[in-house]
Amino acid sequence: MKLKDLFQADLVKEIESSGNLKHFKAGETIVNMDSYIKHIPVVISGSIKVIRTEEDGREILLYYLTPGESCIVSILAGIKNETAKIKAAVEEDADLMMIPADKAKEWVKKYPDWTDFIFDLYQKRFEELLDIVNSVAFQKIDTRLLHLIKQKAQLYHSKEISVTHQQLADELGLTREAVSRVLKQMEKDHLLILSRNKIELL
User: Fold this and answer.
1) What does 106-135 look like in DSSP terms, one character per residue?
2) Can you list the residues of the chain whose pLDDT is less than 70?
């Protein structure tokens, strides 16, 4: 993904002069809960997962960021100089354009395509969060689990993904035992194949 695919030439020049392109390894944390946002990430390659963490340590996956996207929660917190209400971690090795928060605020008034970018992100994430509320309230564990596995398969462009039962449990806010039980039933139903720290969709 290139910046010129997202923004007009004059904004691209400002982003390249003000921002800092950085490479992050899978597992690295980009944004911590309750931290002030000084730089806003725009994903150039790779993917980021955005998580909500509770005081007792439980987590739930909110959404993924893929090339051409940014975190709307980070943008709003950065612009308002507030602390983050989420945690963002690298799902797969990623190149991120880190944009200073003060510039992001300045560009809202200066560049209509930057404002459109923010509103488009807001709408997309709002719809995804509605889906999460719907799944938690109305869907069974197996449906939620299969949806998450398919999401990861799309991210990695492969039907075989490297993931532990504990990681899936953490992202769904479930116990590892419940996830393992449902995965074994899915394997019996010929939906997937389980192996050590790997799952293959059929």
Assistant:
1) HHHHH-HHHHHHHHHHHHHHHHHHHHHHHH
2) 135-139
